[in-house]
Amino acid sequence: MPLLLDEVEREEVTEAWDELWDRLCLHGETVSAASFAALPRLTALAPARAQALELANAIVRGTLRHPDGDALLAGCPNEVDRLRELVDQRLRTRPADYNRLFSDLLALAGQYHWSASFGDFTDDFYAVSCPGCEAEVTIAVGDYGCYAAIRDWDQGDIERRSLRPAPAEELRDPGRWMHAAAVRDGQQRLAEGIRYVFGHAECPACDSVFTIAEAHTNANLPPALETY
Ligand SMILES: [Zn+2]
Q1: For residue 140, what are the CA distances in angstroms to 52, 120, 161, 191?
Q2: How far apart, in whole angstroms, are the C-alpha atoms of residue 122 and residue 142?
Q3: CA of 149 to the centre of ligand 1 (A)
Q4: Which end of the chain has less Cβ packing within 10 Å, N or C?
Q5: What is the mean pLDDT of the chain?
Q6: What is the whole-number distance in angstroms between the Cα of residue 199 and the centre of ligand 1?
Q7: In this model, does residue 44 exceed pLDDT 70?
């Protein structure tokens, strides 16, 4: 591993990067202790090598897939801060792969479940459990509408109720900083999607109104990691 890192530090070698991906983040998701051990060198290389930034971010995104991932990542606080800074700089340039980089930013901020579930808000769906009656509610945010519904295998999304997006000034973190970054970078659709996801939904089964983000977080985080 150190030899491979030596190699990519000297020059851009595609084969060496391929091998580093295989060893440190197989299929873009399988991480090991060695992956986290490589973070300092990858981070140091990241300003000069786009591949290094991409691989380092993929490792951070994989944190929760490793049983000791949290502890291993906690050993690299400076690297995480630096990567977050680099990603934030790249986002300000409004790159073509903005949404993918934005999801890297979310992982670097510890928002793993949002990192994994944000799409581009053209056609995003979230399955949540209503806190009032435990009915499974489908939340849609996209071109087909922004609604809460009951998903019926034959009839599609039925009993649709319009979502109630949070006014920007009422957003709380992490929704607030996510929205601010999207607005700063002119990502109108993303900013709107964030207002919906951090807003309220009405359950079609019991009429109770609940916070989508809270229901989504409960559905996706192990109990020890509830940070919302
Ligand atoms: Zn309900």
Answers
A1: 35, 12, 10, 16
A2: 4
A3: 11
A4: N
A5: 92
A6: 16
A7: yes
